[in-house]
Amino acid sequence: MDFEFINKRYSVRQFKDEQVTEQTIKELVKAATCAPSGKNQQNWHFVVVTDKNKITEIARIVEAKNAELATYLRDEKKIKGFKGTVAYHTVFKGAPALILVYAGPYETIADMLIADGIMPREEAMKYAKPNPGIQNIAAAMENLQLAAASIGYGTCWMTGPTYAAEEISTYLGFNKAGYHLAAMTPLGIPASDKLSSPPRKPLEDVLTIIG
């Protein structure tokens, strides 16, 4: 079987200085919204930033939040490790476009059990583990990235910077009731055509077939 379209997707962190057209962005987001979602809730919202100054400022916001959160850590090794992630959490700053994906409300069986208060909260919480509301966002993001790769664009799935979600949303002036920043991706033409992906686990390590 030929799944070459999947193999075209790489995590791209460096981009050419070429703008992405509004029409291309709209087509990619449209592809994202074709993803399946639990109860067809489609609880996603896409915010696209194309102003380079704004993208640079978002990176600065992430850097500041990283430094702030590090002050709440005690172990020096953890502090150093966490501060070291900031370079990875701001790789989007060189991209011509930044897509932020927000997740909206999604009521689960856990929410209903907790609300009615008959089942102990600790027991009810185990039904929240699948978290379909976030799975919907993940499906949409995967669609977007595969679609982008199929037409020569690079992306990079990012959730690390979301620790600055509130600050980023406030800066952009985006406020949609019940929605929170769940993931983001830079978007642009890869700076290099020599792209690679880290090795995947052997299939026998991740597959169980029960006849």
Automatic annotation (TrEMBL):
It holds the Pfam family Nitroreductase. SUPFAM superfamilies: FMN-dependent nitroreductase-like. This is Nitroreductase. Residues 6-188 form the Nitroreductase domain. It comes from Sporomusa malonica. GO terms for molecular function: oxidoreductase activity.
